[in-house]
Amino acid sequence: ALECINVDKYYIMGSYKIYALRNVNIKVNYGDLVSIVGPSGSGKSTLLHVIGTLDRPSKGAVKIDSIDVTNFSESELSRFRREKIGFVFQFFNLVTYLTAVENVALPMLFSRKYNSKEAEIRAKLLLSLVGLPEQRFKNTPRQLSGGQQQMVAIARALANDPAVILADEPTGNLDLESTSKFLSTIRFLNEVTKKTFVIVTHNAEVATFTKNIKFIRDGIIYEKPPEDFL
Amino acid sequence: ALECINVDKYYIMGSYKIYALRNVNIKVNYGDLVSIVGPSGSGKSTLLHVIGTLDRPSKGAVKIDSIDVTNFSESELSRFRREKIGFVFQFFNLVTYLTAVENVALPMLFSRKYNSKEAEIRAKLLLSLVGLPEQRFKNTPRQLSGGQQQMVAIARALANDPAVILADEPTGNLDLESTSKFLSTIRFLNEVTKKTFVIVTHNAEVATFTKNIKFIRDGIIYEKPPEDFL
Ligand SMILES: Nc1ncnc2c1ncn2[C@@H]1O[C@H](COP(=O)(O)OP(=O)(O)OP(=O)(O)O)[C@@H](O)[C@H]1O
Ligand SMILES: Nc1ncnc2c1ncn2[C@@H]1O[C@H](COP(=O)(O)OP(=O)(O)OP(=O)(O)O)[C@@H](O)[C@H]1O
Ligand SMILES: [Mg+2]
Ligand SMILES: [Mg+2]
Predict the structure, then answer these.
(1) How many CB atoms lie within 10 A of CB B204?
(2) Closest CA relative to residue B167, chosen from B197, B130, B129, B132
(3) Which ligand 1 atom lies nearest to the CA of residue A147?
(4) β-pairing verdict for B212-217 and B33-37
(5) Which residues of B touch A145 (CB under 8 A)?
(6) Distance, CA A149 to ligand 1 centroid (Å)?
(7) What is the C-alpha separation between B162 and B198, in angstroms, rounded?
(8) In this predicted structure, which of A226-230, B21-25, B74-78 has the lowest mean pLDDT?
(9) DSSP state of B56
(10) Which has the closest alpha carbon to A103: A74, A130, A73, A75?
(11) Residues A41-97 pLDDT 10s
(12) CA angle, corner A30, sides to A28 and A31, nearest 5?
């Protein structure tokens, strides 16, 4: 399980503090399918980064499988992440000079779980699973449309077969058909291989699909939508 | 008016050509409110870049106010663009080391339409119009959430009070409230100041809002949705 315990996250801008998260307590168990909804700037990306150990909390603790990792070194954290967590970033973070297949294979070469031949075969399979046409496999991100880059980012998050996938607005650039393909892939992976998904979204169809929705506003997490939420 | 006449756009990948646009004929008149819908990779961004003179067609002609600008030099085109066309790019293209206000003011300093004091006042007004909270005005893009960056990108497109705004998936990162604020701003600017908008979108609410919808699939434009479109 991934846990945040009494987590604050703030930024210091000149003379005042901007709170992105306020006293957040959240636990995600293996096999969960959770969505996080909230207005622009409410702290959704910050929450994914903190629970996924990409960002450190300003106060409070983060636990992975009941181990307090809040003060782990960066290299210890990156080993935890590589083994357990896949990310789909809000703005992809693809490597611009690598092809779609290379972008998806890269995490597999870092984790040494697969050799380069296996990584390539696995990368091609994941790209077809998310709907990228085969003749785009050798395109770099600049040669792909926005939605196609999003497909590469989703495939890359699945590269090392992680137990948990943290996805930040994964359908923002996808058309209706790719969105529904994405949702059926999630359902399949969650039900059959018990993968855990935490999905930040503004898309009502995606949120209701997960059945376990957390609401966030001004850095505070609610189990039910607060007054005049939407 | 902006026009594409028999426009092809293709990319050469090794031994074959990828057609992003095929024999496109489209005319956008001043005061129009048009949306372009189509699957990922169908040519929407390419169409906006070509009709907005950011990209050259592989075949065919582009006209602005009946002037054939297809073979104009880059500096002639950039003068046309600065005077007439505002862009909201699919991935923003904000300048990372400038603040929100500076990003919006920058096009005004290039066009010399406003001095730096006027540009700052106008930039702040545009940012509040699109919904960015005032205490974020001095944040750089890295210090803003995805939706907040989108608001800056929309405000920047309005900087020089252009006659035409080309927006590529402008609500992809916006929450429901900001999306409806964006739509009412568009309606106000279109009805009261006769601004022209061409909006690429996967969002059905945005598409139906424009009343004039063009469909695109595999680079071909249709006035009505082709067979099994969605
Ligand atoms: N530089 C390039 N080299 C090769 N192919 C390219 C290049 N740029 C775009 N393409 C291809 O052209 C096609 C059209 O791309 P475009 O970005 O216009 O799609 P789009 O309709 O905007 O899609 P999305 O909704 O995913 O943003 C895509 O199949 C894309 O892979
Ligand atoms: N480095 C930073 N410095 C200052 N403020 C920051 C920084 N990073 C984020 N913020 C602020 O923290 C708040 C939360 O940001 P976050 O990116 O988590 O929002 P979000 O819910 O993901 O929004 P969106 O839906 O627009 O992506 C925002 O108000 C943002 O301006
Ligand atoms: Mg975000
Ligand atoms: Mg596009």
Answers:
(1) 12
(2) B197
(3) 26
(4) parallel
(5) 40-42, 44-45
(6) 10
(7) 13
(8) A226-230
(9) -
(10) A130
(11) 999 999 999 999 999 999 999 999 999 999 999 999 999 899 899 999 999 999 999
(12) 105
Asked if B5 contacts B67 with a C-beta cutoff of 8 angstroms, the reply is: no
Atom index in ligand 1 nearest the CA of residue B18 equals 5
Predicted pLDDT at B16: 85
Residue A19, judged by CB atoms within 10 A of its CB (0-12, 13-18, 19+), counts as middle
Q: Which long-range contacts (CB under 8 A, 24 or more apart) does A141-145 make?
A: A141/A92, A141/A94, A141/A95, A141/A96, A141/A100, A141/A103, A142/A96, A143/B11, A143/B13, A144/A100, A144/B41, A145/B40, A145/B41, A145/B42, A145/B44, A145/B45
Query: Would you say how long chain A is, in residues?
Result: 230
**Residue A67 Cα to ligand 1 middle (Å):** 44
In the structure, what pLDDT confidence band is assigned to residue A211 with cuts at 50, 70 and 90?
confident
Verify whether the Cβ–Cβ distance A143 to B178 is below 8 Å.
no
DSSP for B130-182, please give it: HT--GGGTT--GGGS-HHHHHHHHHHHHTTT--SEEEEESTTTT--HHHHHHH
Q: Which of B7, B16, B24, B44 to mutate to test the pocket of ligand 1 (most atoms within 8 A of CB)?
A: B44
Q: Rounded to a whole number, what is the largest CA-CA distance in chain A?
A: 54
What six digits make up the tokens of A45?
Answer: 């990306």
The 10s digit of each residue's pLDDT in B101-153 is 999 999 999 998 899 999 999 999 999 999 999 999 999 999 999 999 999 99
B103, B95 Cβ separation under 8 angstroms: yes
